[in-house]
Amino acid sequence: MTNYEHKITIKAWAEEDRPREKLVLQGRRSLSDAELIAILLGSGSRSESAVDLSKRILHACENDLNQLARLSIAELSKFKGIGEAKAISIIAALELGRRRKETLSRDKIQVSTSIDVYESIASRFRDLNHEEFWIIVLNRANKITSSHLISKGGQAGTIADPKIIFNTALENHAASIILAHNHPSGNLKPSQADLDLTRKLRSAGRFLDIPVLDHLIITDHGFLSFADEGILD
Fold first, then answer.
1. Vertex 172, ends 170 and 177: CA angle to 5°?
2. Buried-state track 143-173, b at ≥16 Cβ within 10 A, e below 16
3. Do the strands 212-219 and 176-182 form a parallel or antiparallel pair, or are they unpaired?
4. What is the pLDDT of residues 80-105, one digit of tens each?
5. Whole-number Å distance between alpha carbons of 119 and 178
6. How far is CA 179 from CA 53, 89, 136, in A?
7. To the nearest 10°, the Cα dihedral for 73, 78, 82, 88?
8. Number of C-alpha atoms within 13 angstroms, CB side, residue 143?
9. What residues does 13 pair with on adjacent strands?
10. Of 141, 147, 134, which is closest to residue 112 (Cα–Cα)?
11. Which of 86, 92, 165, 197 is least surrounded by Cβ atoms within 10 Å, i.e. has the fewest?
12. Terminal C-alpha separation, the chain
């Protein structure tokens, strides 16, 4: 009777079925998500191949790469067979993917609607479990010239200092700015603190002749524009 106690390792697979060899022979698009992650891991364990380990991790994340990208080193290391080095490899690869998407639209974008702003900044907030506050700098042609992280905090909020915001705007020759921050909770409703800060910054912007054109609250599922909602003032 055949003994199935020990699983067949990747080295025992047919060459065309091994992730690395499969990529060389058939191209990167032929690999599943689990096979690509297995290449990052490099090896599994005596009881589990790298592909099986990758499948187990993906299953825990409901086969959603966005969920996987939110995991910390400590959370990934809880999986048997994943140490700190392998966890770092996964996180680094997913972050490179996020940055690649970001660089595809690095040319100056002319802003005419809140959707233009959202599409330019949304990737910065993807996979975050904490709040971040950014400003988007525009020139006189309403084109985005740069984006800047002002502050980061916990899940409940972050403090944005008006002095830092307008110092950054002045240093980057802003004709106008747009504010953006995320709500990790997924709630798009602005808090009273969000409303008060926006009013304060709008007032300071008028004084410095650097108008605040909009404030976006961003979640993984969409955004709210203060300008669109008529709540800027």
1. 75
2. ebeebbebbeeeeebbebeeeebbebbeeee
3. parallel
4. 999 999 999 999 999 888 777 766 55
5. 13
6. 42, 33, 6
7. 0
8. 7
9. none
10. 141
11. 92
12. 78
Q: Which helix (H) or strand (E) holds 146?
A: strand 144-152
Residues 6 or more apart whose Cβ sits within 8 Å of residue 146 = 136, 137, 172
pLDDT in tens, 178-229: 999 999 989 999 999 999 999 999 999 999 999 999 999 999 889 999 999 9
- Is the pTM of the predicted complex or chain greater than 0.85? no
CA distance 35 to 20: 9
| Distance in angstroms (rounded) separating the CA atoms of residues 197 and 151 | 14
Tokens representing 141 are 């042609």
CB 176 within 8 A of CB 211: yes
**Tokens 């709008």, residue located:** 202
The most distant pair of C-alpha atoms in the chain lies apart, rounded to whole Å, by: 85
Q: What residue has token string 């233009």?
A: 116
